[in-house]
Design a protein that fits this description.
It contains three helices and nine strands. The chain is α+β, with helices and mostly antiparallel strands. It folds into two domains: 55 residues, SH3 type barrels (Roll), CATH 2.30.30.40; 101 residues, GMP Synthetase, Chain A, domain 3. The strands form two sheets. It has a six-stranded antiparallel beta sheet, with no helix packed on it. It is globular and about 50 Å long.
């Protein structure tokens, strides 16, 4: 990202990384963008790391991108097609400290789709975090839930944070390990 700081053009709500506490960053503060992935921004302000949602990009002097339209199917979608769309959506979720999506990090343990009507589904996801004490868990779980319900035939999404088995680096894909310099 650019080494030039962005001066906040207005007060903006942010989540403290890694604890997840909501705070308000003040207009006029200098924010260094360290990551811009999956529709969110990780910034450093006064030596502390924060996550800013895409809807607040204007506070960074950036264009607010309109949320993608819900993924719709032309006609009934097969369970296989829907599962593929679900995994594609999950790959757009990122840990604010790690520039790898949560699927490739190995944080998604299970995703189960259940019909709840003629052409409607419920998604149940079990996911973990790289560390049990990470306060960003509820923020990431909400991000996963939001992305899943944006897929047209999914009307309900439940995301459960689980700790068994404990996450470790062997759960990452080879591509993630390569990207993070672990191979």
């Amino acid at each position: 990202m650019s080494s030039e700081p962005k001066i906040l053009t207005r007060d903006v709500e942010a989540s403290v990384v890694p604890i997840g506490t909501k705070v308000t960053l003040q207009k006029g503060e200098a924010a260094h963008i360290t990551q811009s992935l999956g529709g969110t921004y990780t910034v450093v302000v006064n030596g502390n790391m924060f996550r800013i949602e895409s809807r607040d990009a204007d506070a960074l002097g950036l264009e607010v991108t309109v949320a993608p339209a819900p993924v719709t199917a032309s006609g009934p979608v097969t369970p296989e097609e829907l599962e593929k769309k679900v995994w594609e959506a999950l790959k757009t979720c990122y840990d604010p400290e790690i520039p790898v999506n949560i699927v490739d990090l190995g944080l998604i343990y299970d995703c189960h789709l259940t019909p709840i009507g003629v052409d409607n589904f419920k998604a149940d996801v079990k996911m973990t975090l790289t560390a049990p004490g990470c306060g960003m868990g509820p923020v990431l779980a909400q991000d996963v839930q939001n992305k899943l319900v944006s897929i047209e035939p999914i009307d309900e999404a439940n995301v459960e944070l689980v700790w068994d088995p404990p996450w470790n680096q062997s759960m990452m894909t080879e591509a993630a390990k390569l990207q993070l310099g672990l191979l």
